[in-house]
Amino acid sequence: xxxxxxxxxxxxxxxxxxxxxxxxxxxxxxxxxxxxxxxxxxxxxxxxxxxxxxxxxxxxxxxxxxxxxxxxxxxxxxxxx
Length: 81
Fold this sequence. Notes:
The protein has 81 residues and is an alpha+beta fold. The chain is built from 3 helices and 5 strands, in the order ββαββααβ. It has helices spanning 18-25, 47-55, 64-73, and strands at 5-9, 12-16, 36-40, 43-46, 78-80. The strands form 2 sheets. A 3-stranded antiparallel sheet has the order 4-3-5. 22% of the residues are buried. The mean pLDDT is 95.
């Protein structure tokens, strides 16, 4: 079983594993990347799109920095265009 890591974003605590993120984004088409991306399932996703889908947050409920912190802790590649 995959190790889940606990996070707090905007006062809400939740947990995710790498496998959770990959499963939730499987079959999702990435939108255009404007600045910051995360590499998942061989695709580059805008980091806020990927985090909203993976964690179930609305996009206005977290910052890009929040998403970067979570994805880096889960050891996903994060970059800028």
